[in-house]
Amino acid sequence: MTKRDVDGGSGRPAATQMAFPLRRVTAMTSDRFINGPSNVAARAWLARSQWPDGRLWLWGPSGTGKTHLLTAWAHEHDATVLDARLFSTSSAGGRIRVQGNLAIDNADSPGDEATMLHLLNDAFSQGDRVLMAGRLPPSRSHFMLPDLASRLRATATTATGEPEDDLRATLLLSLLADRQLVVSQSVTDWLWRHLPRTGNALVSAVERLDEAALVRKQPITRALALEMLPDLLTPEE
């Protein structure tokens, strides 16, 4: 079991009171990930037993499976999952210490850069691996701390791309199934043809349609999609 403690500087382990939640989402497993050419390079890097300096940065557009890959890797390697946006200096006068492998989501927008730097330093000294994910690579992310910026820019990177057509079709069906939504094939085919060719558009569309169908207690139809997704759908030919 992964051990976590906060050291307030006294040299004694403190009670486990974190300034942000630790996530262990097991639903995003590797067998549920949809493989495709757009993510083959990322999957190859994640399958390696070692990374340079034990760190890897995974980047790509929203909706291309970064969090799924990060969470699946964490589950397979008993890693603690943290959301960098929730890093804070207000952790009862101490700082976060994590023993074991580490997976950091939203690594390109940490709430506190010193916390992130300490975590990377600890992992390196302990010989643990760190997987980080963000929308941008380190070279295009802005960090105030020079030590953190240089450390991250020296980190190996890999990327996910926008899904190709076959993957988009499978992703749309998977997103609907995950929410237990029953939609006719004619509607799903129509959505696939008229939604933007990005993973984020598919995720956003399914979320909005699910919410509308739940509130109105009605099935997802083309009419509902036209009403709820006017900013996403391309005009009818």
How many individual helices? Answer: 8
Q: What separation lies between the terminal Cα atoms?
A: 57 Å
| Low-pLDDT ranges | 1-26
Strand numbers in spatial order across the main sheet: 3-5-6-2-7
Helix content: 25-40%
Protein structure class: alpha/beta
Following the backbone from N to C, one meets helices and strands in this order, namely EHEHEEEHEHEHHHH
The gross shape turns out to be: elongated
The strand count comes to 7
**Which value, in Å, is the CA radius of gyration?**
20 Å
* Residue-averaged pLDDT: 87
Largest sheet, in brief, is: 5 strands, parallel
How large is the share of residues in beta strands?
5-15%
Quick structural overview:
The chain is of the alpha/beta class and about 240 residues long.
Q: How would you characterize this protein structure?
A:
The chain has 237 residues and is α/β, with parallel strands linked by helices. The protein is 38% helix and 13% strand. It is elongated. 30% of the residues are buried. A 5-stranded parallel sheet has the order 3-5-6-2-7, with helices on one face. This is Chromosomal replication initiator DnaA. Pfam families: Bac_DnaA (PF00308), Hda_lid (PF22688). It comes from Gluconobacter cerevisiae.
Topology:
Elements lengths: L3 E4 L32 H7 L8 E5 L6 H11 L3 E4 L11 E4 L3 E4 L7 H14 L3 E5 L11 H8 L2 E4 L5 H14 L6 H10 L4 H18 L5 H7 L9
Parallel strand pairs: 2-6, 2-7, 3-5, 5-6
Antiparallel strand pairs: 1-4
